[in-house]
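Lab notebook, design round three. We kept the backbone fixed and only want residue identities now. Task for the bench partner: fill in a sequence for the structure below.
Input structure tokens:
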């Protein structure tokens, strides 16, 4: 298991979020500018790094940065708590992206969260488990997350689309306080723009045996990092802090890239928070 962003990419994102120059960050880290640039590029540490000074300069947590440098990874969650949850990973152009399938164990009604690049493994999983796909929830409309949407909708023409995209027809746009029942499961949403203007995180609750909530977060947050701040780094961090990290600590976080994590893991180890 590897993180979506290596140490250098996390540092670069911190610097971009704060608008700082590489030269100033290098000084704060106690590195030459050449060594600092190599660190951002490769994620490998050359020499002694002053992570506390670097974190202070970047406006992120230096202690958590140091833990990342020492090899921190989120604990692998016990997915037997969520027997009706599947992560589907597809790759194109070297970019791997996750989408997620959730269903009710009794009714066999299913919901898909994003589509990834390829509809084939989604369709196969639905057929193998005897499911009826009722809903397609989009966390945001960047290409890697919706590339297979046309094929999915062609295969399941009756599914209902849910999105924050302003260009979508009104009947498909999420509204405040909306919720969807999927058998006994309950799907709600929280707006999480910042990485994408239409960013939204979906929360699935009411799991059998009181399993913790599952948050399908798209690119709002990754294990140890966050999505690129387009259009706003400040808004991206604010929304994650307010809308995701306020969920119960045991909540399973399902990002669009990288490993699964939890709210507790990210509160303790994500340098952006």
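Proposed sequence:
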């Amino acid at each position: 298991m590897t993180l979506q962003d290596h140490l250098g990419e996390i540092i670069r994102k911190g610097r971009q979020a704060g608008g700082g120059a590489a030269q100033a960050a290098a000084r704060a880290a106690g590195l030459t500018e050449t060594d600092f640039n190599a660190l951002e590029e490769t994620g490998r540490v050359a020499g002694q790094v002053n992570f506390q000074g670097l974190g202070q300069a970047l406006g992120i947590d230096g202690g958590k940065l140091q833990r990342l440098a020492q090899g921190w990874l989120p604990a692998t969650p016990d997915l037997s708590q969520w027997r009706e949850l599947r992560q589907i990973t597809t790759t194109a152009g070297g970019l791997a992206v996750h989408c997620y399938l959730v269903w009710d164990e009794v009714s066999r009604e299913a919901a898909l969260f994003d589509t990834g690049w390829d509809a084939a493994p989604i369709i196969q999983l639905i057929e193998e488990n005897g499911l009826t796909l009722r809903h397609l929830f989009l966390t945001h409309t960047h290409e890697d997350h919706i590339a297979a949407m046309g094929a999915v909708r062609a295969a399941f023409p009756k599914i209902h689309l849910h999105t924050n995209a302003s260009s979508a027809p009104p009947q498909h746009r999420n509204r405040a306080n909306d919720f969807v029942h999927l058998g006994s499961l309950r799907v709600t949403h929280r707006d999480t723009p910042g990485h994408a203007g239409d960013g939204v995180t979906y929360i699935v609750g009411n799991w059998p045996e009181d399993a913790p909530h599952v948050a399908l977060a798209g690119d709002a947050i990754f294990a140890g990092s966050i999505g690129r701040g387009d259009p706003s780094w400040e808004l991206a961090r604010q929304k994650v802090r307010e809308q995701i990290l306020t969920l119960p600590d045991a909540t399973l976080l399902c990002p669009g890239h990288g490993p699964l994590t939890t709210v507790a893991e990210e509160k303790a180890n994500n340098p952006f928070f």
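Keep this in mind before ordering anything: The chain has a mean pLDDT of 97.
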